[in-house]
Specification:
The protein is α/β, with parallel strands linked by helices and about 240 residues long. It has a single domain, classed as TIM Barrel. Helix content is about 35%, strand content about 20%. An eight-stranded parallel beta sheet has the order 1-10-9-6-5-4-3-2. Strands 7-8 form a two-stranded antiparallel ribbon. Helix 6 runs parallel beside helix 7. The two termini are about 20 Å apart.
Length: about 240
């Protein structure tokens, strides 16, 4: 059986905004698998954060995988700018656009991995519909827009249902349906990401439910030793 690799992608939103390049390098040295960059427009969510230029500056400072999480309306209009900024994966919200199919397809045409995020209140039924077109599904475990919120344990069932659906329908990494002649376990599992209130305890619960990509911000950056904190989070699951 192909074991699900666990990726730790710290949210740089919880780092020092005045030293983004240094924080990116620190995450790389600390053993992170990627950097999660939260992009907020002040409309889809009430907060306002980073944009393409900041993402490009982070990209210049590190060789880590850049995971851009767009919490903005009309994400299609900004895809090319974020691709140019160095994004390796662009994840946008199902609730932020009526052009979900076109946006997923356009991100992939631009040579970037495409992720789709879901607010806690959005029905699990919507996740099933887009699994085949996505490289990753992000299940928010808090309401998007602010760091430091308390983990919502009721989201564990949504994670579990998503993983069971992927396994039952042989959906593997990249939204691929394993061909009958190929053993499904030979392909990497589909990526299910969680974001919000992730620490050693909640991270373990999410992985047990089926997640394999953990975004953690406040917890990791509040620890005195970032490298040890990332190691502890990875080891806990």
């Amino acid at each position: 059986m192909h074991k699900r690799p666990i990726r730790i992608e710290p949210s740089i939103l919880s780092g020092d905004f005045g030293r983004l390049a240094d924080e990116a390098k620190r995450l790389e040295d600390a053993g992170a698998d990627g950097i999660h960059i939260d992009i907020m427009d002040g409309h889809f969510v009430p907060n306002l954060t980073l944009g393409p230029r900041a993402a490009a500056a982070i990209n210049r400072a590190t060789n880590l995988f850049l995971d851009l999480h767009l919490m903005i309306y009309n994400p299609f209009d900004y895809i090319e700018k974020f691709v140019e900024s160095g994004a390796d994966r662009i994840t946008f919200h199902f609730e932020a656009t009526e052009d979900v199919d076109d946006t997923l397809a356009f991100i992939r045409r631009c040579g970037c991995k495409a992720g789709l995020a879901f607010r806690p209140e959005t029905s699990y039924a919507m996740i099933q519909k887009y699994l085949y077109q996505s490289d990753l599904i992000l299940i928010m475990t808090v309401s998007p827009g602010f760091g430091g919120q308390k983990f919502m344990p009721e989201m564990l069932e949504k994670i579990r249902l998503t993983r069971e659906y992927c396994d039952r329908n042989r959906i593997r990494q990249g939204g691929i349906i394993a061909k009958p002649e190929i053993k499904s376990d030979a392909l990497p599992p589909f990526d299910i990401q969680v974001d919000g209130g992730i620490n050693e305890e909640t991270g373990k619960q999410c992985v047990e439910a089926g997640a394999n990509v953990l975004v953690s911000g406040n917890y990791l950056f509040s620890q005195p030793n970032l490298k040890q904190a990332i190691h502890n989070l990875r080891s806990s699951v």
